[in-house]
From TrEMBL:
It comes from the Bacteria. The lineage of its organism: Bacteria, Pseudomonadati, Pseudomonadota, Gammaproteobacteria, Pseudomonadales. Pfam families: Methyltransf_16. InterPro entries: Methyltransf_16, SAM-dependent_MTases_sf. This is Methyltransferase type 12. It comes from Thiopseudomonas acetoxidans.
Length: 218
């Protein structure tokens, strides 16, 4: 027995049509070995990794069109890793990362479900991770600035793992912490361009959400 219930969701991003196994709802929780607790993941937030959020669809649509040639790419806080699946379907050099103990299980299942080669995975806590995994040209993430300390932690990680010439692409549904993150990224030499985008089908302009693109030329 898994200890949690799942469902399969139909997804379509451009020409990509596939399925993603997700948790059945937000009430799921199973941590028999205490791995999540040791990682600092409480029961209330345990199921968050296993949902397909609007920000993931927005980022997946963006990476469907982004240049991948010669780029080593990392998705941070990947959860169900829909953007990574899209990039893998394009033949990108993509690595997915998170720190939830079940992320890789779902990642491997979903790559096989969509008949894709395995996607390399990193257990990457932002506060301490990054040793030996530097050298990324493109770092992507969806809705990863929702806690007050995320901006500082993520900037520190990017400083350790990004190449001098690099891009960071984040889909943000309008979190207040993005301004702090943007100021810190400017301190690392990144220039921000942003695009207002809808995160819901019936959303009307001006949109609250953003696609944040940080570029550093070295």
């Amino acid at each position: 027995m898994l200890g949690y219930e799942t469902r399969k969701l139909e997804v379509q991003i451009g020409a990509f049509k596939g399925q993603v196994r997700a948790l059945s709802d937000h009430m799921q929780f199973a941590d028999p070995s205490g791995n999540a607790e040791r990682a600092g993941i409480c029961s209330a937030s345990w199921s968050l990794f296993g949902q397909l959020w609007p920000a993931s669809y927005v980022l997946a649509g963006a990476v469907k069109k982004i240049g991948i040639q010669g780029r080593r790419i990392l998705e941070v806080g990947c959860g169900l890793a829909l953007p990574s699946l899209i990039l893998q379907s394009r033949g990108a050099d993509i690595t997915a990362s998170d720190y939830h103990p079940l992320t890789q299980t779902f990642l491997d299942y979903n790559t096989h479900l969509n008949h894709l080669p395995n996607i390399p995975y990193l257990d990457l806590p932002w506060a301490t991770g990054g040793a030996g995994v530097a050298g990324f040209d493109l770092i992507v993430g969806s809705d990863i600035l929702y806690e007050p300390n995320h901006a500082q932690l993520l900037v520190g990680l990017i400083e350790r793992i990004a190449n001098p010439v690099s891009k960071v692409l984040i889909s943000c549904p309008g979190r207040g912490h993005r301004n702090k993150f943007s100021r810190s990224m400017e301190g690392l030499g990144y220039h921000l361009t942003e695009q207002r985008v809808a995160f819901e089908e019936d959303e009307l302009a001006p949109f609250k959400g953003r696609l944040l693109c940080y570029q550093r030329e070295g």
